[in-house]
Amino acid sequence: MEEPGKLDVLDDRFKAYLSTSIQLVKLEAIERSSVLVASLFSRLIILVPALIALIFLSIGASFFLAQYVGRYDLGFGIVAGFYVLVTLFLILGRRNITEKPLRNAILNKMMSDT
After folding, report:
1. Cα–Cα distance between 28 and 98 in angstroms, integer?
2. N or C: which end of the chain has fewer CB atoms below 10 A?
3. What is the CA radius of gyration of the chain?
4. Residue ranges per domain, the chain?
């Protein structure tokens, strides 16, 4: 027969191992989440100035087109129509154009060994 002390030691070691394993999984999840959030914020920091530049370029294109068509409202309407078409294109193809690549990028970032 086994001594009760050896089983208690084995039980304590198993509980410690299990606790350590759970803590390791939590820490790895926190690390992967922090890498993902940092990546998203860095892209957001780049995206904001790019969007501001796009707004100014759109205004410039509207004035440029207005010179050729002779009316400001028509120049701005052409640029607005372009953005409506882009929006419709993105809505109709959102699964293949935006959802899948974004989901894959997030999963790749979460699963990568950092």
Report:
1. 28
2. N
3. 28
4. 4-111
